[in-house]
Predict the 3D structure of the following.
Amino acid sequence: MADPAVEKSPAEIVSEGQHNKDFKPPELTGEIGAPPVRDGMIVKGVTSAIKPHMAKPEIQSKLGFPETLVDNWEEVAVRKLGELLERYKSLQVYLDICVRCGSCTDKCQFYLGSSDPNNMPVARAELLRRVYKRYFTTEGRIFGKMAGAQKLDLGVLSDWYAYFHQCSQCRRCSVFCPYGIDTAEISMAAREIMDSIGLGQQYVNAILGKVHEIGNNLGMNPKALAATLESTEEDLEEETGQKIRLPLDEEGAEVLMVTPSADFFASPHVESLLGYAKVFHQAGISWTLSTAASEAGNFGMFIGNYSQMRKVASRVGVAIREMKTKRLVVGECGHAWRIAYSFWNTLIGPFDTLDPKYPAPQHICEFTLDLVKRGAIKLDKSANDEFTVTFHDSCNVARGSAMGDRPGGQFTIPRELIKASCSRFVDMDKDTIREKTFCCGGGGGLLTDEIMQIRVQGAMPRVQALNSVMQSDGVNFMALICAICKAQLTKVLPKYGIPVSVAGGVHQLVGRAIELGAKA
Amino acid sequence: MSGLTIVFSLFFYIAFNIFLVGILLKLWKYAATPAPLKIPQTPAPKTAAGVGFRMFQEVALFKSLFRGNKLVWLGGYIFHLGLLLVFIKHFRFLLPSTPLLLDNFVKYDLYTGFILLGALAFLFILRLAIDRHFFISVINDYLLLGLLMAIASTGLLSRFWPGGGVKANIPEIKAFVGGLFSFHPGPVPLNALFLIHFSLVMILLMYFPFSKMMHAFGVFFSPTRNQIDNSRQKRWGPWTVRTPGRPQPEEPVYAQPSFAVSDED
Ligand code: HEM
Ligand code: SF4
Ligand code: SF4
Ligand code: SF4
């Protein structure tokens, strides 16, 4: 027991959470309504103590952040906010123009699942907006609390640390906002401010350190990676009787494949890796993975840090030049695809060494569907006859990126590919798919066990909709295109009494259905 | 010129300048701040024309709000439409002669003001009645709705309450208000109702640039809505706006990162 006489440091006050191991997941009632109102008032702060572990000093210093909460944190934080306001139009405009119309209030899975009103997107944004008003606006200086302005004190900082880590930056709120206010942008800014005063998040910052040092989120060094791929190749040959390759660092290959490192051995991720390998093999297109770019994920976005994001992305820029590849394809990963599709060209472009005939980068679903349509590979649906499949639109793919050349390709292309691989496909409730999709509850750097409670609660709307089609249509497979979705759902589904086997990759289905061997 | 005329004229010029300069400064700020990354909220249009159409739907129809909350949409849409119509009707006080169309509109439209007031009251009630909206509202949200309701009420009284005595003063009002814009204001009409209505509008103007009312302009600067989804076709940025005196972008060199690919186990 800690001695109560010993005073807690400000860093402890702000970052100490409660990790409630035996909380109950929400019930699957079939309804995804705004939480019920008790006595006409909402209960505030029920998840205020759910906080991720604070980053250790050695982790912080590797990224160039202060090791722990600095003494003059208020001053530094306000200065940083001022800097960000000059750097990001989104932040400046969004902090100014919210009219508190309420449209976003019942749209966030973390509010719906936790019933803590501070998880309503506008309320989350207000945590930062209050401070903005107090230090940067005439209205806040004149009207103070009446305008909602507030001084940055330890209580506020503590709320920042909790609630900006209960946002998966999924952008669902933005869809329903009359001005497109994207609370994800605000969360990113808040996290960047917290990093700048030494209040980092252990999980995300440790992973960033690993990428810089070793090359991927899982910290697999090149030797271990080569060994893993080799043994996977052997398994593949045993299973299929064909020599299907998982090439690593092969200069001059046609395609550089960048995929989340979880694909190399996590389950069910690896099934998708096998799917990619079979597709390349059967289409006869040479490809390679790269040790330098052995990670598609980029956690720099989660902490809103442009330099970190650029540094992680630049590995890919190096790899395409070193491998002299002509095409760049990205594996199944939600936020990775957002960064690849929307940011890479800015961060590491222009891609002038690549073949201009193909989009750069290209999503593996675009790549494979194109081959299917051209008849370069054949899929046998009956291989997946045991499944009735539904598809979870990963939020970062749905609302932060695209596929194909028409708006909404990110919805149709994976679905077409799934329908080409299996006989029975059912969509979930229309308010829970496409651009209205709910996050799996683990995105945005929340995939760490000490905040399991909010992860389970945040998954509620998605699981609710899944459970409905499981009951009504006998769905037993939810196809995913995101490494985080896969990791999160395999952990969370069992807590709701749904078998792990329901979560799997799109290329898991493709890999099972693809007809290998001589072409007809 | 009477003392009172000078006071109210000055009030007008000060308020109007705060309004104008305040807005221009804000617009400058919004325009000058870079948007370093492509963050359109997808699915997004792939062309500039498409983005124009998207923006039009937001501004003219409040499309996203409609998807998000039908009640607020109803109240908000009627309120803004009413505001626009009432604003247009005010031009009869500014223009030397009233165009026929406007004249007829004013003559036959007896309802817009009341509907506007009703919509404002409805929005006020929504804030109180829906607990989520109550939770997020701050006092200034109510004050602003109150101010707008007070403006609408005094305006309506001016037109429909004979005891207010505004009707008799219309030519004087025209001379005063119209004159303010040509820098030759006539004597300020000595009518309490008019002076209250006028003063409240001046307060609204002065508050505008510092308040959430800036959404009227800010919406056009929202990167999630005004960006074209063409990041793969056209390289964005890196930093599209460079303003002297502002932090300059880190050049997004793709160049060799300092990665030490360690070979140890
Ligand atoms: C481009 C023009 C404009 C657009 C697209 C626009 C759009 C909107 C939308 C979508 C809302 C949210 C719905 C609501 O709460 O009513 C809103 C709220 C509001 N607007 Fe506007 N608006 C515009 C111009 C103006 C102007 C010129 C004013 C000046 C008085 C104004 C005053 C307000 C107020 C006071 C609210 C908050 C209502 C409340 O508190 O519930 N708007 N606006
Ligand atoms: S929908 Fe947009 S304007 Fe309305 S409360 Fe939410 S963030 Fe503010
Ligand atoms: S971005 Fe997603 S998680 Fe964050 S507040 Fe908006 S809806 Fe919630
Ligand atoms: S994990 Fe999947 S659903 Fe969740 S944030 Fe990422 S892309 Fe979105």
